[in-house]
Write a structure and sequence with these properties.
heterodimer, A: 305 residues, alpha+beta, four-stranded antiparallel beta sheet, two-stranded antiparallel ribbon, 11 helices, 7 strands, 12% strand, elongated, B: 168 residues, five-stranded mixed beta sheet
Amino acid sequence: MTRGRFMRYATLVSIGLILGGILGVVASRMVRRHRQTRGKPPNPAMIINGETVPMEEFITELKVLSGQQVLQHVLEQRLVLQEAKRQGIGADEASIARQMKALSPQLDPMVRQSMEREMRYRDVFRKLLLAKVSESEKRLVYDLFREELANYELFGIFLANRADGQAVMSGLEFNAGFAALAARYSVHSTRAKGGAFGYMTMPQIRLWLGEDAVGQVAALQSGKHTGPFYTNQGLMVLKLGAVHKSYQSIKPAVEELIANAGKVALLNRLLQEGKVRSLYLQGIEPEPEATGTPGAGSVPLDYIR
Amino acid sequence: MGRLLNKFSVVLVLTLTSLSPAQTNDARAKIEYGYLRATKAVSLKFFDGIISVRTPDYELLDPEGSPVSLAVERIRMEGMMNPAISVSERYTIESYEQPSASRARCKVQYITTVITPEPGSRRPLTMVMVTRCLDDWLLTEKGWKLARTHVTSQTMQRTNIRPAGTPK
């Protein structure tokens, strides 16, 4: 071996040793860092006074507290989506895109995905439930329950006392404007929106404000208001805005009513026909009682109607 | 003259209070429409539709004559309707009396068929309820409304229940 060749060989070995050393140091640091972080959850669910709640703990708690319900919902959702696909029923993608666009962009991508799936599920479920409902059947439901399904746009001023009621009535007499009076006199959070409650049905008005309010609203004409009167929520003045009673305007509510009535039947059929395996569901769900209920025959029961 | 006036008033009162067959038929048709609405509301599981045929101060009495509140009735009805695969109801007016132009009493029998899924197997189970009531109807400014129901009897029949101990 010549001196020159030896020198080249020695240089290459030295460079190799130096590079190997550098790589070794880098690798050992990476391993040390990995060891340090391995014990910590990569994405803690919560940190309380410096104490970390790991994501795994959070997920386990969710499973214990509401896992059964969530899994049941996922099961129903998937069965409905599969059935819609089988029947060639698709979701209204344009509407879903609009709704998704309205969501905050800061939302977790997994949450967005879940919300999108839920929107798609609700849309196709409704379509499946209404697939065999004729227009005449919808018309019949509309004719029978038009008054209960009609939408009334309501505005209200919740009054602190009768004196404020007098002031509101005087203001209305002098065209002070309902919204301005609501902003000044209403003791309810809706004062910020000029007293607007939005659209309500008569059953909703009955439930929230009581029977007197139903009578008052039924007697009002659009654009007119009541005098001060007592409701379930206290003393108030109501104003009626637009009223939607036509078939086209309340058809979605008619369809909702018909669809809701058929939900259990469709889900029950899908659950009966579906092949579902889940260790988790089986592990949690108690086995149904082996009957023991009385056989056919007449029995007295708690009064229902 | 006084006697004549008395006779006249008796005739007038009788004329005003007695009902022509057309009036009776019209009232009965409107009351039947109320029953149709209520039974259709049951099949739609629409409790607000059921109560829409009633007066605001409607009174419901159980077979012992005790009043049942609307809140209790809502819980019971929704508890029966909501988990059901289907609910259907038929009514029969067994007797109809109209003592005045604004009041009517009906003896009614409802047959309510409720199909529910059996827990576990999800096999449909059928329950048939037979309810007999005395219903008082009132002519209000919103038309004929049900003012009072006295349930005189209610029984339930269950069908296709597996006897205890039989295999699933």
